[in-house]
Fold 3-oxoacyl-ACP reductase.
Amino acid sequence: MNVFIAGGTSGIGYSLARHYLSKGYCVGVCGRDPAKITDSHFETLQVFQTDVCEMSSVLSTLKSFLVDKDQLDIFINCAGSYAEDVAGKISYEEAEEMLQTNILGTVNCFEAARKAMKKQKSGNIAVIASVSGIMNYENSSLYTKSKRSVIQIADAYRRALKPFGISVTTIAPGYVDTEKLRKLNQNDLSKKPFLTNLETAVSIITKAIEDKEKLIIFPAKMKWMMKSLSLLPSSLLNIIMFRKAKWMKND
């Protein structure tokens, strides 16, 4: 099995890479900073420096990974960018990076995987969205809107690629205990409800891909909480989510 993971040099992506390597699969990962990988125990891991916002970069990287391989079995896009803008201002640079990575990067990864898998008429593509993306209200954060777009983009590709035997799985996790999440919160995750550890997240994600699930939202408690909130009037939801963001920032 040949597996490629965009955004696989850290966090969920790297944990998924380690999982597939332990199964004896041929695994490649890419990211903007390959130096993030300091674990030398997996010498068979193929690492590439790639910017998912550049289509030529993604295509070139995937071509290099597949140069001596007959097919691409699994492509997972874990690349993502986050900046909080519900309870405070966001800079243009932060907004631009988040939109380009989360939306343009998603499309680029789908296109690269599609080109590789279409001729072989098989393959699994997965993308990491967010549980926040299942909510739709006027003043939701830019991050939430971008992740909602990821879910919609994945749904469009799922319909388009189904006739070619290619499955698309959208992963919408809640809070996962990664180094990045800890860094964003000064190592204090006490205000992150229903926190999922990396091992559990990897188990859920890999099973969803194997079972060719369309959309998997976890953990279950977060899923039902967000779905319940989404039933509220938009005006009330705006207030609740704004106060939540302020509370989480200790304002």
